[in-house]
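User: I'm curious what two different proteins look like when written out as structure tokens. Can you demonstrate?

Assistant: Sure. I'll show them one after the other, since each token string lines up with its own sequence. Here's the first protein:
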Amino acid sequence: GLEIVNISDPTDPYKIGGFDDGGHTRNLFVKNNLVFLIDIDEGLEILELSTRNPNIQPEIIIVVVVSCSIPIIVVGGYFIYRRVRKRTV
């Protein structure tokens, strides 16, 4: 899952939104209004938020789930890179 917290005043943070699918988020990356969640149960979940204004509760308007067995993802430009471990025999 994901909790979105307004920290514009670090002495008074407060939750303004979230996404709970019952899964376990291992890592996340944010690019513009996209949030890439690495979920232990679901794989890669891509959420599109309706706003980046910290005073308005964002809506999650798109959820895309991509199955992936390697939970290490790096987001760069418009690409998602998976790290692959080289195996020696």
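Here's a second, unrelated protein for contrast:
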Amino acid sequence: VFDAIMNFKKEEAAKLIEKLDIKLDSEDKDKEGKPLLKAVMRRWLP
């Protein structure tokens, strides 16, 4: 997940986010790089 987001592999990152059943807001989905990683980690990790 970290590698896909930080290297701007949008399709791969989207697939992983979907597989892990991470719910992102529409504004979070538009982010890239570190801001997206922060949003995903906040939702994914308890």
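A detail about the second structure: The mean pLDDT is 93.
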